[in-house]
Amino acid sequence: MKLLNAAPLLLVSLAVCPAQRPPAKGPLRVLGSNPRWFTDGSGKAVYLAGSHTWQNLQDNGLIMPNGGQNPPPVFDYEGYLRLLETHHHNFFRLWRWETTKWTDAYTGSTVKYCRPHPWMRTGPGQASDGEPKFDLTRFNQEYFDRLRSRLIQARDRGIYASVMLFEGWEIQFTDAWAHHPFHSPNNINGVEADQDGDGKALEFNTIGKTEMGRRVWELQQAYIRKIIDTVNGLDNVLYEVSNEAHPDSTAWQYEVIRFVKAYEAEKPKQHPVGMTFQYRGGANQTLYDSPADWISPNPGDPQKSYITNPCAGCTTKVVVNDTDHLWGHTGGDNTWVWRSFMRGLNVLFMEELLPSPTWQDSARQAMGQVRRFAERMNLAAMKPEENLSATRYCLANRGQEYLVFQSDKGEFTLDMKDAPGSFAAEWFNINANVAVAARPVEGGLVRRFTTPFPGPAALYLKRQPE
To answer: Nearest to residue 427, comparing CAs of 443, 447, 406?
Structure first.
């Protein structure tokens, strides 16, 4: 083993500033040659990373000082997109809330209101929130126009968005069902999705099997068709079935995925469909076995933890590692972002949009950092190669490009025995957000490197032309 340090030569500042980006291309599809990544059809891999927040489609009072207003405070969507651009993000979840009003123990006793919703409030009669009842056979065009407009605004900034079709967390863990459109006191159609009367409406196993279950499923299908008809022509669209629905929803979620794919098969464009962690008590194997194109897992077991030791080979699906399903909105830093990227995972950060501690700022910055490396490299050919480096965090296109992550200052090795030739070298100081050019590295041996600065670092090697 030959000792070799890639000695730093010069410091390059990487100032973060918004840049004019081309519109997002697509639709995205799984890259057949390397299915951990998406491609936009060009043959190049597209890496997804970004912040998402609860108010980015419907206005609501979640995590806001003035959340008790009705109507709820209007969300600054333009400002949100500028935040993403500033940090070089290109992906978010477009959140759906199903109920009009709720309180919960997680965000305090303040009442949260939410609007607009997919159906018209025509009456006759008042719903439990004091406003006209819903007519579930008439769509509210305001909702769908807003959905399409916000997707177009994101597309024009080079940003992809996942359209969340349903939301399962609020039904389980708040008093939301009392104000849900599918609760019979709130609609004029006699629809009651909570058939056992427990106030949770978790009867996913009755969808399509009982008379009421069939009515609910028909209404859900009509809503899904309306969503697809509204956004099918856009290139930056992905779909997510439901945020954190109960584990009993598995068969229903699989059916929704199949329904979306079948309906879109008749349309000009087909978009990726995702399934995310089922809470509480869901298993990642359910996601791995699903017909989804992409998934967002829970933390998993300690040996393959998506928090501390992200799993590179647990599934053949595209993985979007989302802090929402790992910590909620209380975790995720630059080390986690880099570890996820080096294991072949896309990343999402649950964003409060409040004054934030250093670890949150570091995560936002790191998502832009890994995206820039993804754009510089031939990402379509890069795969996690844990055994090539003592750090166990290495993306490699053997013989051509290597990116190694070291979580703190120190020595590490990189096996380049099958990679003869000269490689341009660059260190990247993750905390300082600066690159440090280094002397070329000769391959053909196991090389040892020492980070030239404290804190987490990345080493990028690219084969030089002969």
So the answer is: 406
Q: In the numeric block, which tokens belong to residue 344? A: 């072949």
What CATH number does residue 203 fall under? 3.20.20.80
Same domain (yes/no): 358, 454: no
| pLDDT cut 90: percent of the chain above it | 81
The token pair that represents 278 in the structure block:
């089922």
Owner of token pair 């009072």: 61
Contact 431, 418 (CB under 8 A): no
pLDDT at 11 over 60: no
Domain of residue 454, CATH code: 2.60.40
Into how many domains does the chain fold? 2
How are beta strands 91-94 and 59-60 bridged, if at all? unpaired
The answer to whether residues 56 and 128 belong to one domain is: yes
Angle made by CA atoms 141, 145, 148, in degrees to the nearest 5? 140
Indicate whether 455 pLDDT > 80.
yes
Residues 251 and 186 in one domain: yes
Q: How confident is the model at residue 200 (pLDDT cuts 50, 70, 90)?
A: confident
Residue holding tokens 């006191």? 185
Give the pLDDT of residue 2: 31
Are residues 213 and 241 located together in one domain of the fold? Answer: yes
Residue 17 lies in a domain: no
Region of 133 please: left (phi>0), alpha (psi -120 to 50) or beta. Answer: beta
Q: What is the mean pLDDT of residues 66-81?
A: 87
